[in-house]
Amino acid sequence: MTYEMLFAGFGGQGIMLMGTLLAYAGMIEGKKVSWIPSYGPEMRGGTANCSVVVSDEDVGCPIVTEPSVLVVMNEPSLQKFYNTVARPGNVFVNTSIIDPHHPALARLVGENGERKSQKEKGGGRAVMSENVSATEDESVIAGEGVRVFKIDANRIAQDLGNGRAANMVMLGTIREVTNVVEMASLESALQKAISKRHRDLMEINLKALHTGAEWVRSHDVPLLTPAG
Q: Which pTM was predicted?
C-alpha cells in the first residue's frame, strides 16, 4: 500500500519533524519512503510544507500533489491545499488555529456550505446534509470519500504541559487513523530524532503521541466510503 501525505503549517509548528518521523518510522519497518521539504519565504508567517510517501513499493514520484493524507496546522495551509485531496482521503485539521466550521471543510465532504440551522426550529445545532456522516460532537465528519478530523491540538498539548507538542498530538491521530506505521516505530524514530540536549522533551512528546492516538479511539469514527 502507498500513502501519499502532505503536511503544512506555519514555520515553527514542527511540520518538517512530523514528516521526518513518519518517513524514518517507515524506514525502520523496511518500507520505501521519501521526504521532500518546501523551504523559502513562505515559511515566515505563511505555509511551510513537506511531502511524504510511505510505500511497500518503489516510490515513483516523491512530490505529493494529490495527498491521500493532508495535515493542515493553520488556515493559509487549509486554503492552499484543501482542494488537492485525493479520494479516498483523510484530512487532519488543527482547530486550535483553524475555525472548525470553515467553509472549506464543508466543501471537502460534499456540503454546499449552506448548512441548515435548527435555531429556527428551537434547537442550537446545525444539521448535516444527508450525504454527510459525523460523530456526535462533529469533531469527525465524512462524505464524498473524505474524512475530516478536527483536533484541538494546541489545547491538548497545553493540557499535557507543553503547547509545542501539538505536532506530536496530530502525528498520533494520523498513525491511529491510517496505520501507516506502527506506534513502536514512531517511538523509535522519535528517540533517534531528538538530540541529547533535548532529551528532557522525550517524555512529553511520547505522551502527546499516545494522547493523539487515544483521541481517535475515543471517537466513533465514520467509515471512509467512496465518493458519489
A: 0.89
